[in-house]
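Notebook B, p. 112. Complex prediction, attempt 2.
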Amino acid sequence: MLGTGIIKGLAVTAKNFVGSFYDPARLVTVEYPEKQIPIPENYRNFPFLVHEGDDPIATLRCVACKICENECPPQCIYIVAERDEKGKVLKKPKIFDIDIAVCMSCQICVEVCPFDAIKMDQHFEIAAGNRFEGLLLHREQLAKPNSYYQKIHPTEAAEVDAMLTAMKARQAAEKSAKAKPAPATQTPPPAA
Amino acid sequence: MTDPEIASPSAFPEPSVLATHSAATVRPVHDEFHGDLLEVSMGPQHPSTHGVFRMVVTLDGEVIVKLKPVFGYLHRNHEKLGENTTYLGSMPYTDRLDYLCSMTNNWAYALAVEKLAGQPVPERAEYVRVILAEMTRLVNHMCLVGFLFNDLGTSFTPLLYAFREREKFIDLFESLSGSRMMCNFQRFGGCRANPSPEWLGAVSKLVDGFPKFLDEYEQLLTGNEILLARTQGVGCLSPELAVQAGITGPMLRASGVGYDIRKADGYGIYPRFDFRVPIGAHGDTYDRYMMRILEMRESVKILQQALRDIPAGPVMDPKSRLRNFRPKPGEAYGRIEGPKGEIGFYLISDGSPNPLRYRVRAPSFVNLTVIEDMCLGRTVADSVVILGSVDIVLGEVDR
């Protein structure tokens, strides 16, 4: 009979309409600013820099090696290394800027960093009133403690912490071995 | 200007000459019976052109006598960017080609680079890739059906049903790769993260419940008389033209040509799975719609087999490297059966960190080339439906 297909379809919509009042599985949205769906652990949006101690700038893990700057596909990272008064390059950044208006959250900087210094943040409510100032982050805004990293990515942070402690122990053992008889073994570069 | 009555034959070609041209040029522009032809520019800002796509349609009354597709409004220099970034750096850009199917784009690009560098892939990674690709196919086909019927005037009901379901898939993508749509998940020699058993369990649960959703969806749409009247016999594409124009994917199979790269190439581990390739009979819009529904049912079968057989182990080849990746000089073409058709990447390496030439074979772009042939003789309302059934994403068409 002509029209049965339409009636069948309308029965489906009617079922869904009624179900949306009674069946929790049909209620698929939440009212956002008041309620929030929990973010999955692997969620990523923009990078931040991990620091270890109390002073955010002095204890950054970053050594200004510029690998992430070179690998970043949209080239949103800008790094200048610190120099001492004689002009010798120190292993920390003087300028570390990320233009998150350009960043496309691809996580390649995190993957290539051999020092686990840059990680992906999960803070997404970052609307800014100004096109340039609010979205160009300097090292002061980027630096966040390791405890914050452990909070947002617990599994990943536990792996990284275990690796770093093992590496430090190995380096300390090598240093003490080198200090006594000194067979000039070079410290192997940390595994990427 | 010369008077029409004394015009020499050279000024107005013989009717026999005109007849060899397409229907577009045959009709006289000034004619006491037909009046003027009307040229309408549909798009680039038109909701039914699926993005910034423009069709210059010449109408005789309501009938289309000529249709010129105009694209390039979303050109982002993708291929040139690929030549100026490293092999790894191009991977996130491939997400942005067809932004509904980033997982299959990643796989096609990874496959091309792995061919170029002779990079093996661990077994578990192959399974993960198949699972993600088939999930992407489900997402894409669901959305396509929703958008197609949105164009037909169903005003959002099928689209929202599809989006409700798609959200569950996208949440799984997010919990695995970190991003809902721009997944950037495949790497040369494997995948970026190893899926946990809980994640695979969640996929399994979702996939097992999916046929129920498809049944509901089909009950809503397939037998609907308005839908049948609007799609059956509309926009027929002959198998000969489809083959000659290089059409691939569900659109080619709807025309009755049984060509699926999963079967023809057997890339990855697809030969291990038991699935069938649905084939249409008429090549009209209705067949193209049914093709998507049937393919989704086959994808569910593949997913269930892959989730059953997936082995334990690493998902990344230990010899693969992220930085300083320099393949030997040579060239490679990697292609897979994407949800929209054959998506392929052609790369030439000169031994440097960047490819010398980087070329994308985008299925939407090639499938769009026959839009005029399908629309001639139909009305404007039909052209919108036909365009919807082609399944284009402008990010991929314009690159």
